[in-house]
Design a protein that fits this description.
single chain; disordered N terminus; 31% helix; alpha/beta; 9-stranded parallel β-sheet; binds alpha-D-galactopyranose
């Protein structure tokens, strides 16, 4: 990285941005609740149980040399902690935690419940999960337990409690990870009984369920809850949605079972979390995070195709689970072992990714894994240290990240990303669309990223939040596909617009109610009156359809909705050109002033260029300005602010050099010099202090 020093005046836009952000920032952030621990953490997943104790000190010394100050341990070590039923051995874990402390490395403890020991599953096969086709898992691999099994939960509670009794007040243990990557539900008899009880609790009388599910269709009418099948596809859309809700609640109670074992024995400063998987939609993350302290996720690209927009959206999504800074609990040291071609990130991109995580609000970045196990299912995965115990090439790049975290940690302490733009993530809508895509290429997550991309580019900060989150701080709220729109959510959104917010709804919005039944008003259902228009018909597209308006022209692909205006003050923004006859010259996007704000409906999956023109116009109308204007393509600008402080992270995601003009002199925290422009090599970064 090189810097230039010519001084330029602060632009009005940037002055506005800085003044708007710095004093209003209230969210507090730090990596841990322990004031004696570093404010940014760099970590590795370490498996001491796989190595002779005589080797541990050498590993920890190599970590310390790379500025690693965190290890996560224990999450698959149940058979080492409880080798026989009720016989515990924690001596090795005591030693590992102590030795880590000697090297100034703090510890997150994983409860080992993603990998039950063979004695447990052999003696109690009813704890094993059953798949949708009624096939029970055998012992082997991992995650072979039933999330609903009361017997499994009893064992999980016991091991978590034993760990908490021993380490709940260990000054070197800063937090807990429950299990590992919650994923597959179980269809065992106990889970089915629980699902029926869950439905009974929700609907009370079977008649209510029959009504909301429209069970007259195909003779599905039920006389009692026990008759209801348990499936996750090829079923009534209402059943499918309720199954997802049940799965979400069951994972939440699965967490609660372990939280109730840990919390009574744990220092209040120790957080409890679990590690999630970005866009994974097996359950509703907002439900599952309601009893966790922080959000944490496993950030894998899988191959060399690092799409920084998609990855940035996944960071912002995770931050939105608790609306505060989060952890990257795992990320790849260059490459993984589970993709079709496990190609590597280029030299420099591991550092680029680490800083993107920090820019989006991570306070810890942890690599999976420290060292290749000699055997086991993941021998080819990227590591920092090879089987021979010496560093692999990426070690030095991660060491550089560690050095930079040390230099910038103090400035970043108490800061969090800032945004006046929000993108809505709604699991019900994603599920509802995925159950019946109508066009198999319509991926609701891809459509979210299509909207996210120009918003991030132009606003340089996006929050990804649930449809129920408070909205008043946002100038622009975009719901790319709010397919399921219950009346209550519609009121929440309408209230936001009436109070001065700008609400944008993307294609397929407002079609369904909370039971996944069609709304009897046309789209956007309960918001059609406020919009002053409605969708007359939706069309899945095989070919591109031309679209144009005052903002520009382009095409619609995959999906196009024929819109009509009902109010004279609803303005048409875009119209379709000639295509199937139905769409010809019909509105594709309309907007209307509502109270002090506006509602805009975009009924088509627009191409990137046209959508970028639309979002630019919406941002302008909403008064949203970038942090730094005129940055080169492929350069990301991340602002983190706290009380009386703000830090800007610049990331050059290109593999070529770029030049960036700053609005005024800023301090480079990596070498303590002041500059008004920055030159970055490919994949290089800069960390600049505003105040
Ligand atoms: C997941 C798991 C880890 C490891 C990595 C490999 O994230 O949590 O245990 O298997 O994948 O990429």
């Amino acid at each position: 990285m090189q810097f230039h020093r010519p001084l330029r005046l602060l632009t009005a836009a940037t002055l506005f941005t800085l003044l708007a952000f710095a004093p209003s920032c209230t969210a507090f952030s730090q990596a841990t609740e322990y004031s004696d621990k570093p404010s940014l953490l760099l970590g590795a997943a370490w498996y001491p149980e796989q190595w002779p104790e005589s080797r541990w000190d050498a590993d920890l010394a190599l970590m310390e040399a790379a500025h690693i100050n965190l290890v996560r341990i224990g999450e698959f070590a149940w058979s080492a902690m409880e080798p026989y039923e009720g016989k515990y051995d924690f001596d090795w874990l005591d030693h590992a935690i102590k030795l880590a402390e000697k090297h100034h490395i703090c510890v997150v403890l994983g409860t080992p419940t993603a990998a039950p020991p063979a004695w447990l599953t052999t003696k109690y096969p009813d704890t094993l999960r059953v798949d949708e086709n009624s096939v029970r898992d055998e012992h082997g691999n991992r995650q072979q337990f039933s999330f609903a099994s009361s017997r499994y939960r009893k064992f999980a509670h016991e091991i978590a409690e034993k760990m908490a009794e021993r380490y709940g007040h260990n000054s070197n243990v800063i937090g807990w990870q429950l299990d590992n990557e919650y994923a597959a539900p179980s269809f065992d008899p106990e889970a089915k009984t629980q699902f029926h009880a869950w439905l009974k609790a929700k609907y009370g009388k079977i008649e209510n369920l029959n009504d909301h599910w429209t069970t007259a269709y195909w003779s599905q009418t039920y006389d009692n809850f026990d008759e209801i099948p348990v499936r996750q596809d090829h079923e009534n859309p209402a059943l499918l949605l309720d199954w997802k809700h049940f799965v979400s609640d069951t994972w939440k109670s699965y967490s609660e079972n372990q939280i109730s074992a840990i919390r009574p024995h744990a220092d209040k400063r120790q957080f409890i979390t679990t590690n999630t998987m970005g866009w994974f939609d097996g359950f509703d993350e907002y439900v599952v995070h309601s009893n966790l302290d922080i959000a944490a996720w496993d950030d894998y690209i899988g191959n060399e195709h690092y799409d920084y927009f998609d990855n940035g959206a996944r960071h912002d999504l995770t931050r939105g689970f608790k609306n505060k800074n989060f952890w990257v609990m795992e990320t790849q040291p260059a490459f993984v072992n589970w993709h079709r071609i496990n190609s590597t990130l280029a030299r420099g991109q591991v550092r680029d990714m680490a800083w993107q995580a920090i820019g989006h609000g991570a306070d810890a970045v942890e690599y999976w894994q420290w060292r290749s196990a000699l055997n086991g299912q993941e021998q080819y995965h990227g590591v920092l240290v090879g089987a021979d115990g010496t560093p692999v090439p990426v070690y030095d790049e991660i060491k550089q990240v560690g050095d930079e975290f040390e230099k910038t940690g103090k400035a970043l302490l108490g800061t969090t990303p800032q945004s006046s733009v929000a993108l809505i993530n709604d699991y019900d809508s994603r599920w509802a669309i995925n159950f019946q895509r109508h066009n198999y290429t319509f991926d609701p997550v891809a459509e979210m990223v299509v909207f996210y991309k120009p918003l991030l580019n132009q606003a340089q900060g996006v929050d990804v939040i649930s449809a129920q989150a408070p909205l008043s701080k946002y100038k622009l709220v975009v719901a790319s596909g709010l397919n399921v729109l219950p009346k209550e959510t519609a009121h929440h959104l309408l209230d936001y617009a009436q109070q001065g917010g700008n609400l944008v709804l993307g294609p397929r919005s407002g079609m369904k109610d909370e039971y996944n039944a069609l709304n009897i008003e046309r789209q956007p259902g309960p918001l059609a009156d406020a919009l002053g228009g409605r969708v007359d018909q939706f069309y899945a597209l095989e070919d591109k359809v031309p679209v144009s308006g005052d903002l520009g022209s382009g095409t619609a692909t995959l999906w196009a909705e024929q819109i009509s205006t009902k109010s004279s003050d609803a303005k048409v923004l875009l119209r379709y050109g000639a295509s199937n006859g139905w769409l010809d010259n019909q509105p594709a996007a309309i907007t209307r002033k509502v109270g002090k704000g506006s509602i805009t409906y975009i009924g088509a999956w627009l191409d990137d260029d046209l959508l970028a023109k639309v979002t630019a116009s919406l941002l302008l109308q909403s008064g949203v300005q970038p942090v730094i204007s005129n940055t080169p393509e492929g350069v990301e600008v991340c602002l983190r602010a706290g009380t009386n402080k703000s830090v800007i992270i610049l990331i050059n995601h290109n593999n070529t050099d770029v030049h960036i003009e700053l609005p005024r002199a800023m301090k480079n925290l990596l070498d303590d010099t002041s500059h008004t422009s920055v030159d970055l090599h490919g994949y290089d970064i800069a960390v600049l202090q505003e105040k």
